[in-house]
Write a structure and sequence with these properties.
Adenylosuccinate Synthetase, subunit A, domain 2; Adenylosuccinate Synthetase, Chain A, domain 1; ten-stranded mixed beta sheet; 3 domains; Adenylosuccinate Synthetase, Chain A, domain 3
């Protein structure tokens, strides 16, 4: 049975939650391996709509074991709030596993995140202000707090003191804010320990044993390839590894165990926050995509920037992730457009580039080279077989497949769980 990684192939918000949820009934474990509560998923099940921020979307599927891996940073208050909200709606959350090695987002990092972003002014990154970046920075600086530390007050206090020794200097002397009190931080974190304890496990061991036993494990990325800290549009990126390689480091399974890597990509493109976006639209077409596609952040509610499909980004994501399949989402949003432009290359100072520019400045100045495809007007939300799509929609999908670096195995034609056309089995 396979280990499958699901990643975003653009700048996030591609519909990974729906893709993971669709596979959920056929898998045993769903693992979130990176990010924190800055990466929201929206999943529609029948008449119910679920907005998940920290939890893996597999938590909505009965029988699946949802796992928060070691690569995730956890705001424990948010975790408990999400669990309580789902419980109130009748969802069984008792199977959740949380890695003992996952890092905790302390209150002082939320404060630092917000004041630092304001301090940057025009150089803002566009963070959600939830303490994600500072917590990953602590992890790399070796002053972070891990889930397991909440069960040893002495160790927890030592680590908080070490972290605040420098952070309080920054808060007070740079940002003119009140210093964080060690006792307050420790006391707050300790209040979570007993409720958290039954969920905590050696998740890396459990996942490897599950694969040894022939069970199917799905690894679900937060954010996306173009927001990956190494391979994205740096510095306008997230603070974690959102590509397929992050599934290994963020969960504790080896690369030889991965059987398939699925990229989720919209039939157009969106981006939240700052940073370059070559196909961005500032006209009525952009408003149409935003309004028709409901392009507002699951976690933040921020309007998303919208643009046409970018095949250069798709090929790049296919390459850095080693994609075996693409899940194309929101094809229905394009219904009603007479012509649909697709970016097939970039123009940088008069030079055509078919692949991603190697330097940040060139990408910032890249302008899209478009090819236009015929649109369609028929309602496709009820279509379940590829051959039943309008001819122009079929042609659009097949052309995207040719230029995107991987086969398109699934097509989303509506927000509902069942509004999907399956061309190839993602687990077969």
């Amino acid at each position: 049975m396979p280990a499958v990684v699901v990643v975003g192939a653009q700048w996030g918000d591609e519909g990974k939650g729906k893709a993971t949820d669709q596979l959920g009934s056929r898998v045993d474990y769903v693992v979130k391996f990176n990010g924190g509560n800055n990466a929201g998923h929206t999943v529609v099940v029948g008449d119910e709509k679920y907005a998940l921020h920290l939890l893996p979307s597999g938590i909505l599927t009965p029988g699946v074991v949802p796992v928060i891996g070691n690569g995730v940073v956890v705001d424990v208050d948010v975790l408990f709030q999400e669990l309580d909200d789902l419980t109130e709606r009748g969802v069984d959350v008792s199977k959740l596993r949380v890695s003992a090695n996952a890092h905790v987002i302390p209150s002082y990092n939320r404060t630092l995140d917000k004041v630092t972003e304001r301090f940057l002014g025009k150089r803002q990154i566009g963070t959600t202000g939830r303490g994600i970046g500072p917590t990953y920075a602590d992890k790399m600086s070796r002053v972070g707090l891990r889930i397991q530390d909440l069960f040893d007050e002495s160790i927890l206090r030592q680590k908080v003191e070490a972290a605040l020794e420098l952070k309080n200097q920054i808060l007070v002397k740079v940002y003119n804010r009140r210093a964080a009190a060690v006792d307050e931080v420790v006391a707050e974190l300790l209040t979570h320990a007993e409720r958290l304890r039954p969920m905590v496990a050696d998740t890396a061991l459990e996942l490897n044993e599950a694969l040894d036993a022939g069970k199917t494990v799905l690894f679900e990325a937060g954010q996306a390839a173009m927001l990956d800290v190494d391979h994205g549009t740096y510095p306008f990126v997230t603070s974690s590894s959102a590509t397929a390689g992050g599934a290994c480091t963020g969960s504790g399974i080896g690369p030889t165990r991965i059987d398939r890597v699925v990229g989720v990509i919209k039939a157009y493109a969106t981006r939240v926050g700052e940073g370059p976006f070559p196909t961005e639209l500032f006209d009525e077409s952009g408003d149409f995509l935003r309004t028709t596609g409901g392009e507002f952040g699951t976690t933040t509610g921020r309007p998303r920037r919208t643009g046409w499909y970018d095949a250069v980004v798709a090929r790049y994501a296919s390459r850095v992730n080693g994609l075996t399949d693409l899940v194309l989402t929101k094809l229905d949003v394009l219904t009603g457009l007479e012509r649909i432009p697709v970016c097939v290359a970039y123009d940088v100072d008069g030079v055509r580039l078919d692949e991603m520019p190697t330097d940040q400045s060139a990408y910032h100045h890249a302008t899209p080279v478009y090819e236009e495809f015929e649109g369609w007007s028929e309602d496709i939300t009820g279509v379940r077989e590829f051959e039943d799509l309008p001819a122009a929609a079929q042609s659009y999908v097949l052309e995207l497949e040719k230029i995107s670096g991987a086969r398109i195995s699934s097509i989303g034609v509506g927000p509902d769980r069942e509004a999907t056309i399956i061309r190839h089995d993602l687990l077969g």
